[in-house]
Amino acid sequence: MEDKTTKKNYRPNVAAIVMSAKYPSTCDVFIASRTDVEDAWQFPQGGIDKGEQPKDALLRELREEIGTDKIDIIAEYPEWVSYDFPPAIAEKMKPYDGQIQRYYLVKLKSDAKINIDKHSEAEFSQYKFVPIDKIFEHVTYFKRTVYKQVLKYFKKEGYI
Fold first, then answer.
1. Which of 49, 51, 122, 159 has the fewest CB atoms within 10 Å, counting from its CB?
2. What's the domain count of the chain?
3. CA distances from 158 to 14, 24, 74, 145 (A)
């Protein structure tokens, strides 16, 4: 029997669950609203450049997207996770069908200053910190499955 499935093309990516500087006494997490997708709140994330290590990409993406890399890495999700783009976004992201991501749980340092307008092509229009248990009231639908998986792991391990 012939296999009719096609192998999906996933974009290598890093994502950061950014806890406020008050962590661990307060578990508020950073989310931001994308400029290119209406009402799509998410964690900071971005592609890994060819030859770049995931942790280096994490720091670069945080500098680009939220204006600071003044963070402490608390934990790293132990495996890569993937998701498919919804059709409307898939068109814009060709040749990729989705993303394969490495997740990091990080804490902002007390002197970190967030600036989402740092670059001329800002990816986010606004941001806020929300209690971790309220995150799914805000984040975009197509990222929820991955977010639940990763957050469940960090909770089980005692980080959040």
1. 51
2. 1
3. 22, 11, 11, 20
Residue 14 resides in a domain: yes
Along the 160 residues of the chain, how does pLDDT read in single tens digits?
A: 445 557 899 999 999 999 999 999 999 999 999 888 778 899 999 999 999 999 999 999 999 999 999 999 999 999 999 999 988 888 888 899 999 999 999 999 999 999 998 766 788 999 999 999 999 999 988 899 999 999 999 999 999 9
**Domain with 74 in it: what CATH number?**
3.90.79.10
Residue 13, strand partner residues: 47, 101
3 found inside a domain: no
Copy the structure tokens of residue 57: 């990409």
